């Protein structure tokens, strides 16, 4: 279905978010999806019966009315994914289409409840198969997802970096097993590969390999600064963390405007601006408290 697909270009940039400022097609897609009407349970039943009778137009209506559901799930899944947002949405749309084919209205539940499982399955299957240099089993993904959540909670509670061994102990898992699982989450890049430069030019990976003469002390200080910054940001609420990371290009996020972040969350630019200011005030207060404590 052309209406449910997102026009995408192949990119070699591993950023999880496409450059939303340069993607008019993505913004247009969001506007189009928000314009589709939500269906009542009775309307879903009627349309599902039409689909059983081979009505292609009914199938199109049911898909379009649930595209916002795919966006909602993708916004949550992006935090555990290295795939671009558009890829997650595309995979979710494929899962949605499978759900439309298999939905049985006689079972009595809403279509969104049924479709959510298929959408998540499609997304996490893509994450497993496309994000890393090897296929990661689902049980490892689930274990590491739980690991990340517990580690974040512990660091927030103790306001410091927690090592993997302590988290593994809390999960009642051998630290060596966690380290093995984490080692699977690596990506490989061909030295002969290429990616787009800032000015639109194409660069080879070999052109940007790390200089062996780089100051090691500066690199260590930089890495420590990133860890400290991540620790401070982790004290914020989930949405505040995401807004700060997207606004300032932290971690794997690309710098994003208030307006485009608002589109992702389905809220106004002003609402995101207030979230950003609230988060920055919290960070300032946390830093002041840390200084007084020292």
Would you write up a description of this structure?
This protein has helices at residues 24-34, 41-52, 56-64, 67-77, 85-102, 111-130, 138-158, 164-171, 175-183, 216-233, 238-248, 258-265, 269-293; strands at residues 194-196, 202-204. The chain is mainly alpha-helical and 294 residues long. It folds into two domains: 2-130, Four Helix Bundle (Hemerythrin (Met), subunit A) (Up-down Bundle); 215-294, Arc Repressor Mutant, subunit A. Strand 1 and strand 2 (202-204) form a beta hairpin. Helix 4 crosses helix 6 (111-130) and helix 8 crosses helix 9 (175-183). It is globular, with a radius of gyration of 22 Å. The model is unreliable at 1-22 (pLDDT under 50).
Throw out a few tags for this protein:
two-stranded antiparallel ribbon, 294 residues, Four Helix Bundle (Hemerythrin (Met), subunit A)
How far apart the termini lie comes to 60 Å
| Global structural class | mainly alpha
Strand order, sheet with most strands: 1-2
The overall strand count is: 2
CATH class of the largest domain: Mainly Alpha
What pattern of helices and strands is seen along the backbone?
Answer: HHHHHHHHHEEHHHH
- Rg on CA atoms, Å: 22 Å
* Largest sheet properties: 2 strands, antiparallel
Percentage beta strand: under 5%
Give the CA-based shape: globular
CATH topology of the largest domain: Four Helix Bundle (Hemerythrin (Met), subunit A)
The CATH architecture of the largest domain is Up-down Bundle
Number of domains: 2
Mean pLDDT: 77
